[in-house]
Design a protein that fits this description.
7 helices; Helicase, Ruva Protein, domain 3; alpha/beta; homodimer; Dna Topoisomerase Vi A Subunit, Chain: A, domain 2; four-stranded parallel beta sheet; two-stranded antiparallel ribbon; 203 residues
Chain lengths: 203, 203
Amino acid sequence: MEFPSRLIEEAVNEVAKLPGIGKKTALRLVLHLLKRDEEQTQTLADTLVAMRTKVKYCQKCHNLSDNDLCTICANPRRDNSLICVVEDTRDVLAIENTAQYKGLYHVLGGIISPVEGVGPSDLHIESLVQRLGAVDNEQVKEIILALSPTMEGDTTAFYLQKKLRPFKLKISTIARGIPIGGDLEYADEVTLGRSILSRIAYE
Amino acid sequence: MEFPSRLIEEAVNEVAKLPGIGKKTALRLVLHLLKRDEEQTQTLADTLVAMRTKVKYCQKCHNLSDNDLCTICANPRRDNSLICVVEDTRDVLAIENTAQYKGLYHVLGGIISPVEGVGPSDLHIESLVQRLGAVDNEQVKEIILALSPTMEGDTTAFYLQKKLRPFKLKISTIARGIPIGGDLEYADEVTLGRSILSRIAYE
């Protein structure tokens, strides 16, 4: 694509570096900004830079935060006997949106993936071990592994189980099965098979 | 969605103001920027602001430009007996990409749409009339209307035909028909019907 303006071309190229945004979409977004007030572009640019330069990571759970401790870790009403281990902040948000979980989190910052060259040392696993070993954290009773049911997720879960065994805690994983509202007919065999194996007795 | 950080929330809200980007996608983009170097976010912000504040519109055809005249209008090798009227810069880029057109353009900056409150006076129609009336522009022989085949596009085309009639120029529109590679079976009736009415004789 040949652009009529170098300024447009540079902006399009930068926007197209974002994941899932191609040149055509980038151009649409850039032209949209041109139709809006200059102020909107300025605000967009300022908030992005402020976010990138000022945002912190919670020193305890590595969740995104404005302060040294995130709002979840700093909240005394959260159940600190539970730690839910997730891949990234998006998973924290997804679980928080369910309003079903009142414990704490630990954000790994990724998942073990030999293909992408991500090993256990690249993730916040050591800090989880330290967190469990710390004197003031003796109240933790259960670790919930909420990782994606992919090969990488299962590998990470397996590694964590081995690593956390010495603490003699209850270690669980989120339930796998047929999604609520899902049709049996359209479920894949692996999920359906697993959902029969891990069937839940009526109480 | 409740965000763990006000900085993240503000950035997500600003990104989600862009067309076709919802909160979830905005969050994905923001988290992506967090994983990349600070420099990338800074460059993105800088190029967007530079684009928004410095880009000009061609004084002749209203296309986006770095200078007073766009590269197309300033190019002496373009055929200045042809002016192709389009809705916006994206259409110029699309037509340029075909490499089939060597004339000039006139960018209306929109399309007549009573629903969205866009009337003829909001578009660069008067400047087209002035362009055709100017002494140094007597060489224009044909106006090609390349507008979308929607109700708004047809309305705009009809208005332009009426407005340009006094100049006694050839006025044409781009061909409507079955797209190359398109299957007759899946073409809508209106397009198929029109393609029969405006059939092209083999020479």
